[in-house]
Amino acid sequence: MKINHVGWNVEMSYCNLPATFYAITEPNLVSSPQQVILNDQLATSLGLNTEQLKKNESAAIFAGNEKLAGIEPIAQAYAGHQFGNFTMLGDGRAMLLGEHITLQGDRVDIQLKGSGRTPFSRGGDGRAALGPMLREYVISEAMHGLGIPTTRSLAVAVTGEPVYRESVLTGAVLTRVASSHLRVGTFQYAAARQVTEDLRELANYAIERHYPQAKKEDHPYLSLLEHVITQQASLIAKWQLVGFIHGVMNTDNMTISGETIDYGPCAFMDNYDPVTVFSSIDVQGRYSYRNQPGIAEWNLTRFAETLLPLLHEDQEEAVKLAENKLSKFAQLYMTNWMSGMRAKLGLFNEEKQDEVLVKDLLDVMKEHRADYTNTFRSLTVGETEQMFHTAEFTEWKERWTARLQRQSNDQGKVQQLMKQHNPSVIPRNHRVEEALTAAEEGDMNVLMKLLHVLEKPYAYTTEQEEYVTPPSDGTSYQTYCGT
Ligand code: AMP
Ligand code: MG
Questions:
Q1: Which of 305, 388, 452, 472 has its CA 20 to 30 A from that of 127?
Q2: Is 252 a catalytic residue?
Q3: Which atom of ligand 1 is nearest to the CA of 126?
Q4: Residue 2 pLDDT class (50, 70, 90 cuts)
């Protein structure tokens, strides 16, 4: 463990895994590292000294020129199903600088994204551009504000070097903080190599790091599977409840910890339409809004397959054990989602007809292309949306009002519950774009203000009001992968 004046307290437990799981990498030196943004609050919560971090010597770390506390950075090996096709991958443009141990004793990965080529880069340049790295920063921090488990963003630094895409862009590196970067794809990598002892070491490592309670169970590996299924069912329900579309739910982009990871072509839905997809490369709509729970289940099935050799020596028995756990996903997801939807509608207790009430509202919203966030926001604060004038909505509202009256909680409590579950603001695509454009031109103020209003999305402050307006046409927005 190496502690320095900034407060870095770094280890590299990942290197206790068999060497096949990583490759030691050297920093790829860049010409003029400069910090663009530092997450003061996150740094403080990690026990880091923000004044020291703001000094330019930290830019050398955040741009990938210097190792963290002298520890050798590594790139992690993994595989993954990308749009359904299995591929061997690995960190092609990321490096793990180390695992920082916070004052509370939590272990978090400090990873650079965009820090240059690694042994897993294939044909890629290992680099990233400023816009996409700031975009990940904004959206991941917005997700955290929304109370959704996610990797965090500690800093973005520019490298002083160009990045060549369709045009010449400013090179940048994101410093990402995660409870780990273990992915479903990490297990797929281990399974594809067919060395059961390596797989067992990986599973033991994942249990130790994320679900130590599984060690006490009769069957720790089955318990690991169950925990991951439970965490993902909860995570995906949270995404659906705020209208978040990940955009590229490949198995390498699904964590074992249950944190959202890899903000590429993701975006928040404006008008409610279950088939919404933003990613330019997702022509089939595989990762559309409505498909996300089913894709999560598909990915978890791939995860379960990797664990089979650890579940039972008899393959048929192993499959039975795995299927039994997987069969719980749909109900778990639904329970999480319904409980969230009840809260969004101010319902404290459960009635059998609630599912129909929710479904009917969503149907009316879909028919009238109502804005997802603002519909719930307006129901919360008693404002009016265009859709509220229609006969279908009026009929629905009567049923909702009657339902609210059948529970004993007063109006104040109902509104409080609704405010806690219906965000007043989300990172709307046009506002994010506006902030990124200004940042690319050297003005960070627009982005800082956006980050500020996204910090407490359930606060319903007056300064959030100007961020409520949806774009004139939400469907035309497109996001791009791998930029
Ligand atoms: P993603 O779609 O961002 O999850 O990335 C899929 C894979 O492509 C990962 O293995 C990345 O490390 C790799 N990758 C993405 N962009 C680059 C790049 N510019 N250079 C090298 N590898 C990359
Ligand atoms: Mg990825």
A1: 452
A2: yes
A3: 20
A4: very low
